[in-house]
Structures are given as C-alpha cells and as structure tokens.
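Entry 14. Structure prediction run on the chain below.
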Amino acid sequence: MDSRITLQLLQNKDKHTKFIEEIRTKIQEMEQREWRVEFRWIKARAGHRGNEMADQQAKEAARNKNIEECYIRIPKRVMMSEEKEQSVKWWQREWTEIRRSNNKSILSQNLG
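Output returned:
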C-alpha cells in the first residue's frame, strides 16, 4: 500500500470515514473466509513491480464503471510463474530488437 495516510487511518480504530469502514468491512469478510490480510507501506513509484501492477489495475478500475468486485485467490507459485514468463518474453523482445538494430547498423556500415 503506497498511501501512508490510508494505512494510518486503518490502524486508528477511532477513525470511521466511509472509505475506511468499507475497507475494514472487506477485510473482515476476507478474514472470515480464512484469508490472511496484511498491509505494509511501500514507497510509491519506486519500481516495486507489484505496486506498479496495483496502480495500473486501480486506474483501469477507476475508468470502468461496470467492473465487479472480485477476490480470487491466486497461488503465489502461479503469480511467480506468470511473472517469470512475462519477464522472459520482455527480455526476448528487447534482445531481438537490439540484435535487429545492430544488424542494420553493421549492414549499413558494410554497404556504405
């Protein structure tokens, strides 16, 4: 969570804003389903992949008026596997582009 204020409000049992109460209600519902809920503050825009993904999803959700709430449990191993796969694909695209750029440069130098 990159909002220190929200985290502090959640920890302060004397604060009862509508937003904070909605979060607390969701936490209770999740814990009743035996979910383990934990909040930690992390610095925003510091390259934390999970935080960047959460920011992107929050922006998409804010734009989508018809989105339904969904609390699907995804096993950590699945997330790690997907992250690894995406990283390898990204690396391969970058590598291919670099090689393509280098080959064009070498070709133009040899022809020039």
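The radius of gyration is 22 Å.
Filed with the rest of this week's runs.
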